[in-house]
Amino acid sequence: MPREVRERQMLDAAVQVFARRGYRPASMDEIAELAGASKPLVYLYLNSKEELFSACVRREADALVRAVRDAVDPDSPAERRLWDGLRGFFAHTAAHPDGWAVLHCQARTHGEPFALEVAAVRQKLVDIVTHLIAETAAEGSCGAPLAGHEASGLANALVGAAEALAGWSNARTDEAPSATERARTLMNFAWAGLENLTNGRRWAPARP
Amino acid sequence: MPREVRERQMLDAAVQVFARRGYRPASMDEIAELAGASKPLVYLYLNSKEELFSACVRREADALVRAVRDAVDPDSPAERRLWDGLRGFFAHTAAHPDGWAVLHCQARTHGEPFALEVAAVRQKLVDIVTHLIAETAAEGSCGAPLAGHEASGLANALVGAAEALAGWSNARTDEAPSATERARTLMNFAWAGLENLTNGRRWAPARP
């Protein structure tokens, strides 16, 4: 069997074991057994538990960013791109709950090197959304474009909302909402506000 | 000096050191010195580094939930309550960046017992928002109330958005937005959509 196929099997097994047991309790014996490989071969190919975990984080992170990018047609209007991007995000996180658990729970709860890798993926998603918001605002009918930091703040809020919704939905044991329902919840939540903003209509508190 | 005053000084020092150095690198020597106490006295009062950290997490969590609750007048309309609650949240997290870092970054990145305590606080905030959304929907002019799980999903999304915005804002070294600006960003983002939803107006994708 070619090395890359073997390695993929090992990573598949590792993602599953890390997600379900947690990083520290996960055993290399279980990972090797699930991958149908010997433990020395796992060490030969992936070096250490720490490097194996790192490789899982990187692979799952790249796959998630790719899923979001691939879902979006850059030539479609902003509303459509957001809808397609969110469906891509929720379809991927729903279809790969173990990969999402590794990124969202495990990698963030085991200290610096992993947490930094996760922060880097997050930044890629935030950049995609910031770009989308800034572009929509520029196309919008309002004279005053959003300040750069305002688009970043909104993008951070939207990504935070999506992460929280994916975590909550995946953790539901009864009636977990479908990926499309999740994306629709977030569009319901966020689109009206973003559309207002990018057209220069801002929310203001009622006079007391 | 009464024990509770001493303990408060130790917790103040510990929150600062944990937030700035991280849980593992933080030293009990530095905490004791900053608290103006001897190291044996810190151990006598708080037992161990782990228990000291736990006490910090609990104290900061309680203070945050209280700040949000205190900011909201339960008799005011939903829009006002959300605005007041968000201002309470962002005012507290901006005024206590070390406490927020302990909750949002440190406690989540150091394994199970702490991560579970943070999840419990988060759930309290989510419950406040779920209640607010469900109530608004019930008061709304729409015939069809939101399903319970829909209100929870939206509340999770809103809390996730607020957490992400607080983290991003506190990390900015230049022109960090004020607490009121942060709350306004989130109202701009979320209120239009929530208002639509609770009045039975739902977002739908444009026909292709």
What does this structure look like?
Two copies of one chain form a homodimer. Chain A has 208 residues and is an all-alpha fold. Chain A has a domain at 57-198: Tetracycline Repressor, domain 2 (Orthogonal Bundle). Helix content of chain A is 76%, strand content 0%. Chain A has nine helices and no strands. In chain A, helix 4 (49-71) packs parallel to helix 7. The radius of gyration of chain A is 20 Å and the shape is elongated. The mean pLDDT of chain A is 86. Chains A, B: It comes from Streptomyces stramineus. Chains A, B: InterPro entries: DesT_TetR_C, Homeodomain-like_sf, HTH-type_TetR-like_transc_reg, HTH_TetR. Chains A, B: Keywords: DNA-binding, Transcription, Transcription regulation.
User: Major sheet of chain A, described briefly?
Assistant: none
Secondary structure class of chain A reads mainly alpha
CATH-defined architecture of the domain at 57-198 in chain A: Orthogonal Bundle
Portion of residues within helices of chain A:
over 70%
End-to-end span of chain A in angstroms? 72 Å
- Poorly predicted runs of chain A are none
Radius of gyration of chain A: 20 Å
The CATH class label of the domain at 57-198 in chain A is: Mainly Alpha
Mind telling me the CATH superfamily name of the domain at 57-198 in chain A? Answer: Tetracycline Repressor, domain 2
Element-level helix/strand string of chain A: HHHHHHHHH
Dominant shape of chain A: elongated
Oligomer: homodimer
Number of helices of chain A: 9
